[in-house]
Write a structure and sequence with these properties.
- By secondary structure, this protein is of the alpha/beta class.
- It contains 13 helices and twelve strands.
- The strands form two sheets. An eight-stranded parallel β-barrel has the order 1-2-3-5-8-9-10-12, surrounded by five helices. Strands 6-7 form a two-stranded antiparallel sheet.
- Helix 1 packs across helix 2, helix 3 packs across helix 5 and helix 12 packs parallel to helix 13.
- The radius of gyration is 20 Å and the shape is globular.
- The two termini are 21 Å apart.
Length: 346
């Protein structure tokens, strides 16, 4: 059993909003004491908000959690990350995800190889080859199964930057992407729908073995996640906070790609939820999620004990956390939120 040994970093997750709003959001995040500012690729571009946030609060750390890799060529992604690394003085973390076939093919009209982990490995290798060419002037030459790069002329070369080692983080569910993170990445974004048994039986063992095989250790990979929090000043507020989490869990658990989380956690309601989703019974699905799943997939605690409960849950397993609040009263009580952040960092 891992025991908590020190402070965590606490990150602000920028909600879906126009990029220009990130200037004010970053200012507010810094005032509350957050360490990092993360964006996601949902309704808006994941990179543009960071340019505004970094202008407002250059002392924050910045990252994507996540940007979808495959719709962009490795060279396009390398250039965006290079520019953000320059702007943030090396405080940018490139977080990548694979998404699923339906979105890559039907939403982005992009190439899906059917082997996301091997494709993502090549993608990262190809990006790093581009960065090596820009930083050290070596000819660009990368040849793999999915990506081939062999041309970089001076006109298209931005040249070296002071902080060229752009940290690459990936997100994933299951053993294969966990292993890829252990083999060659700087960090891993754990999906918010997770449990401690899932981390201990699936993520960390696969990551650790791959890291050892590559001459690395788990200490080389920073673990990042958002936490389902069910909190409040009163028991009534805590109970009210449970229902949005129950609904979100019912959605994730209905998707077969998250079945490994259910299996590792000893839960058998996944197939039932999948069948209900196919019948369009979305409003009935939360009732199929037992209270034990709320306790296993999130943190239930009064606000004054929330930081200790998060620390106890994760031990040394995770180094950075954010709040998957789903309307929690904590987000409306800024003094309490500031104290929770400080307690997690201590």
């Amino acid at each position: 059993m891992l025991l908590y040994a020190g402070g965590m970093k606490v990150d602000y997750y920028y909600p879906p909003a126009p990029p220009e709003h990130a200037f004010e959001a970053a200012t507010d995040a810094a005032a509350l004491g957050y360490d990092g500012f993360f964006t996601a690729e949902t309704q808006f571009d994941p990179f543009l908000p960071i340019t505004h946030a970094a202008k407002a609060q250059p002392d924050l750390e910045f990252g994507t959690a996540i940007a979808v890799a495959f719709p962009r060529s490795p060279t396009v992604m390398a250039m965006t990350a290079w520019d953000l690394a320059r702007q943030t003085s090396g405080k940018f973390m490139l977080g990548l995800g694979t998404q699923v076939r339906g979105h890559i093919v039907r939403r982005f009209s992009s190439f899906w190889a059917g082997k996301p982990a091997p494709q993502l490995r090549e993608y990262i290798e190809a990006m790093r080859a581009v960065w090596e060419s820009w930083q050290n002037g070596v000819p660009l030459k990368y040849e793999g199964e999915f990506y081939k790069l062999s041309l970089m002329t001076p006109f298209f070369n931005p040249g070296p930057i002071p902080n060229p080692d752009v940290p690459v983080y990936i997100a994933g569910v299951g053993p294969y992407l966990s292993a890829l993170a252990g083999e060659m990445c700087d960090g891993f974004h754990v999906h918010p729908f997770h449990t401690i048994p899932y981390l201990d039986e699936i993520v960390l063992p696969n990551m650790g073995k791959a890291a050892t095989d590559a001459g690395r250790s788990l200490d080389d990979i920073e673990m990042v996640t958002t936490v389902f929090i069910m909190t409040g000043h009163t028991e009534e507020e805590i109970e009210q906070a449970k229902e949005p989490v129950r609904q979100q869990i019912s959605f994730y658990a209905s998707t077969p790609s998250y079945r490994s989380v259910l299996e590792a956690s000893g839960w058998d309601f996944g197939e039932k939820l999948t069948a209900m989703s196919k019948r369009g019974e979305w409003d009935k699905m939360p009732a199929a999620v037992p209270d034990s799943a709320l306790e296993g997939a999130g943190v239930i605690a009064p606000i004054e004990g929330l930081a200790d409960a998060i620390k106890k849950r994760y031990g040394d397993r995770v180094q950075r956390v954010g709040f998957y609040s789903l309307g929690s009263v904590l987000m409306d009580d800024l003094d309490a939120l500031k104290q929770v952040i400080a307690d997690l960092q201590s």
